[in-house]
């Protein structure tokens, strides 16, 4: 087949095709926009200062095993700080025991507890969730607690406790300073320089 015959064949095949009137893309239809409820949950998840616990789901959590060691550290937390927390070297000034709590009550109590600790400038706490060896499914409370702590942005890091403080049935939690305490610290450092 020579080039002319191919071109004639192409022209014959395309005889009934109509040309496109315009060649620009219509951007008027934007992709998915979040709903008001989704935006509200997203804002609530930003810090402990929000009062609505609903952004912490009680519908699903990745299930852990009772003896799993849990660890979480946000970017920016120094390795030395995290290691000291993991080894239980920080003084614990507050404790929350979640034994006998329902998931919903535990979620609400964790938020209330962490908010109160932040207001009182308590930075390192321990939350006892239990191992959940006899629960069905095993370690259910532990799984949800760890998921919630990761979602609360004012939680800087957490790690399973040392054996003498509950081991894998408890977590050490380090909380960010409140905005007021950050301002006080900044002012104190500025006054020192002056």
Describe the structure.
With 194 residues, the chain is α+β, with helices and mostly antiparallel strands. It has a domain at 62-185: 2-Layer Sandwich (Ribosomal Protein S8, Chain: A, domain 1), CATH 3.30.1370. It has 6 helices and 5 strands; from the N terminus they run ααβαβαβαββα. The protein has helices at 3-13, 36-44, 79-86, 103-119, 140-151, 179-193, and strands spanning 71-73, 94-97, 124-128, 155-160, 170-175. Strands 1-4-5-3-2 form a 5-stranded mixed sheet, with helices on both faces. α4 links the parallel β2 and β3 (124-128). The longest helix is centred in the middle third of the chain and has 17 residues, at 103-119. The chain is elongated and about 90 Å long. The termini are far apart. The model has no long low-confidence stretch (mean pLDDT 85).
Quick rundown:
With about 190 residues, this protein is α+β, with helices and mostly antiparallel strands. About 35% of the residues lie in helices and about 10% in strands. It has a domain at about 60-185: 2-Layer Sandwich (Ribosomal Protein S8, Chain: A, domain 1).
Q: Shape, please? A: elongated
pLDDT average, as an integer?
Answer: 85
Largest sheet: 5 strands, mixed
Order of helices and strands: HHEHEHEHEEH
Low-confidence segments, given as residue ranges, are none
């Amino acid at each position: 087949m020579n080039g002319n015959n191919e071109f004639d064949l192409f022209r014959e095949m395309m005889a009934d095709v109509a040309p496109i009137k315009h060649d620009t893309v219509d951007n008027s239809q934007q992709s998915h926009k979040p709903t008001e409820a989704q935006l509200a949950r997203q804002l609530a998840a930003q810090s402990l200062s929000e009062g609505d616990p609903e952004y912490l789901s009680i519908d699903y959590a990745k299930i852990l095993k009772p003896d799993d060691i849990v660890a979480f550290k946000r970017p920016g937390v120094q390795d030395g700080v995290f290691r000291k927390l993991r080894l239980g070297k920080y003084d614990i000034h507050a404790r929350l025991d979640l034994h006998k709590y329902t998931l919903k009550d535990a979620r609400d109590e964790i938020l209330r507890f962490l908010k109160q600790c932040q207001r009182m400038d308590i930075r390192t706490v321990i939350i006892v969730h239990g191992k959940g060896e006899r629960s069905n499914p095993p370690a259910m409370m532990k799984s949800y607690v760890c998921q919630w702590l990761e979602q609360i942005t004012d939680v800087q890091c957490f790690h399973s406790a040392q054996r003498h403080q509950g081991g894998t049935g408890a977590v050490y939690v380090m909380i960010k300073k409140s905005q007021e305490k950050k301002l006080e610290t900044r002012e104190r450092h500025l006054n020192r320089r002056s």
